[in-house]
Amino acid sequence: TEKKAMTATAMVTKKERGLELKATLEQQADQIAKIAFKGFTADRVIAGMLQAAVTNPQILDCTPSTLFLALAKSARWGLDIGDGVHLVPFKKNLGSREQPKWVTVAEAVPDYRGLIALAIRQRLVRTIDAYPVYEGDEFDYQLGTPSFLRHRPCADAKRGALKGAYIIILLHAGVERFHYLCVDDVERR
User: Fold this and answer.
1) In angstroms, how far is the first alpha carbon of the chain from the final one?
2) Confidence category of residue 95, pLDDT binned at 50, 70, 90
3) Using one digit for the tens of pLDDT, what is the confidence trace for 103-129?
4) Which of 29, 70, 71, 114 has the fewest Cβ atoms within 10 angstroms?
5) CB-side exposure of 165: number of CA atoms within 13 Å?
6) Per residue in 147-176, pLDDT tens?
């Protein structure tokens, strides 16, 4: 029973902190709205932050100023939190080595879908398509001159393990480029 009471207290505290943070950010909604990408509202990014905090409660530990900056980035980029950009809490020492003062800060980090959307929106590329390569697929590529990539996915429903992934980028001049990474390189990045 004592453990249940402590858990319930912690949940109430997180809920209260979430509501308090929401109220603080809503006071700054006009500032977010001024820089938001067309179609994005402050309510939309604040709701995305609260939804992300359900999955990752550490977001509620972040300083309000860094959360505001992360939400402003998300709104400016026109990327939804959890679908294109993620709020990532980091520990940061604002003190010294001798007297550390650790705080949790938030950063908006775009994922590959967000980066693709930004590249297309900024007219850097026409399209970017990503594909996985599995054991059992017919796959071959060559860099240099001439370069090529051939991929025939395995038609069998029982594909093997993931071997890698590649993207095909179509530039505005009609030029196509590709880039392949094996699984180890994908994991390292």
Assistant:
1) 45
2) confident
3) 999 999 999 899 999 999 988 899 999
4) 29
5) 14
6) 999 999 988 777 889 999 999 999 988 889
